[in-house]
Design goal:
The protein is mostly helical and 233 residues long. Among the domains are: 45 residues; 40 residues. The protein is 82% helix and 0% strand. It is built from eleven helices and no strands.
């Protein structure tokens, strides 16, 4: 009994010392450090990057390809299916993010803390490679569109424009997150103007006969799931 009481007393003293050390660490924190962590906010840190990811190169370059191979009716089903997968994934990620304090690393931190370090490391490497490839993918698409739109007399390879775009993005990444956050507002404004011009042109040149003609899937088109894989990638 005496040994049990002695162990309990030692445990209580250790717990008090641990709580005091934590309080001292919290008191020694610099004022304003908590405010600096969440300086981006919901709009700049979550909404804007998500919208820029959704309104990507696939939406502008491959949507006509999807309608031409699957028809307008199946394209709407494809969009609903892709949106449903994205919404379910968002709900799952939100449930995980609200159950723990998210630190530096973002997705990598959430995956490693929920699935373990082994699965988190493996999936983190795949995510890193996917992000790297997607940057090259977007820049190549930007180069192809710029070459077709401007129609220069001198032949310029899209790869050269893509390399210049990668160098431009590297400069922004080198300058820091503040410059990248400011630049994303410019990109979002350009995308909003592009969508606005698309809807204005569609309303001005509305054709019921063309809508009826493009509604069913054409003969000899690709399989629905192949088109879905190309669009949803």
């Amino acid at each position: 009994m005496m040994s049990l009481a002695l162990h309990r007393r030692n445990f209580d003293s250790l717990r008090k010392l641990d709580s005091k050390s934590r309080m001292q660490k919290n008191n020694h924190k610099k004022p304003g450090s908590e405010a600096k962590r969440g300086s981006l906010g919901t709009f700049a840190g979550v909404f804007t990057p998500s919208i820029l990811t959704i309104l990507g190169i696939i939406l502008f370059l491959r949507l006509g390809f999807v309608v031409g191979n699957a028809g307008l009716g199946r394209t709407l089903i494809l969009l609903a299916l892709a949106n449903g997968i994205s919404v379910l994934t968002t709900f799952s990620l939100s449930a995980i993010a609200t159950n723990l304090k998210v630190k530096g690393g973002g997705d990598y931190y959430l995956i490693s803390r929920t699935l373990g370090l082994e699965f988190g490391g493996a999936i983190g490497i795949v995510l890193f490679l996917a992000q790297s490839i997607s940057i090259a993918f977007y820049c190549i698409g930007f180069g192809e569109v710029l070459v077709r739109t401007l129609a220069w007399e001198i032949h310029i390879y899209p790869q050269l424009i893509a390399a210049g775009a990668v160098a431009f993005l590297f400069i922004f990444a080198w300058l820091g997150a503040d410059w990248a956050t400011r630049f994303q507002y410019v990109v979002m404004a350009i995308l909003a103007a592009a969508l606005l011009s698309f809807f204005i042109g569609g309303i001005a040149r509305w054709d019921d006969q063309l809508l009826i003609q493009n509604w069913p899937a054409p003969e000899g088109g690709l399989n629905f799931w192949i088109v879905f894989a190309i669009f949803f990638r």
